[in-house]
Amino acid sequence: MVVNWRCRFRPFWKAYALWMRADCVDLSAAFAYHTLQSFFPALLIALSVASRLLGRDVERFDRLILLVGQVLPAALLPTFEATLRRFTSQGLGAGLLGLVLLVLSASNIYLTLQRGADRLWWNRPFGLDHLRWTQHLRRFLALRLKALLLLLVVGVLIVVDQLVSTVRLISSRGFHELLQSYLPDSIRWLASLSFGLNLVMSLLVSFCATLLFLWMLPSRRIPLRSLLPGALLVSASLTLSNLLLGRSLLALGLRFQAYGVVGAVLLFTLWVWLLGAVIYFGQCYSVVLAGAAAGGPSTPLPR
Known about the structure:
Layout: H1 5-21, H2 24-54, H3 58-69, H4 77-90, H5 92-121, H6 133-164, H7 166-170, H8 173-182, H9 195-216, H10 224-255, H11 260-290
């Protein structure tokens, strides 16, 4: 039986053509910019929550420093410890400030991705014509709330995915044992999974998060069946890149730690841009396979 490879790869070529025509490179750069803006407010909230949980418990504080010391470079550990101590004494105000900034930046991330999704599916935002000012106000508030909830849900799924896969693959045994001691008994069994089951669970969690993300992005609902190929492609690509690049990115960050915060920000921005590029390519792949079933692609596809 002869396999027609040209027909097999034709949808990927059409998706790439649409990806280039819709300026997804620039859309991914905008996504990386707004994600970078949301990273520091999220860090403020995380440090504030950690300071509230730690309180004056010296033993728990020292265990957390030991846990983080297995991951962070030695040069950054004193800075992290000093920052956490300051948050322990006055973390509530910074946490509230981080929450406000996170709401704004999360809405910018969501709106950027939504504009990209609408451009791919319909070539313009949908349902914004002839709206009264009260409807615009309700839409503004609803989008901000929806963006924050989506960020929280997908963020939890991403954290679970990292606990299932990345921590097991790139961390030391001591860090793995310390992290396992912090996990609740109900999910501690995840640490004893074999590599195969670990990979399958990571792919499943990534697929669910991606499908939810792609379904909530457009301004008009897309049938889930049309989003399945793109979600599968994105989740498989991200899981594979996580396996292949996880150790490389960690080694690269340790090797060039002399560049300090600037190098870390550049590396993080590059990774987020790659993530955005993969997400947009997955949407282009779904648009190509769906054809005109969901309203038509934004531009004529190549013959």
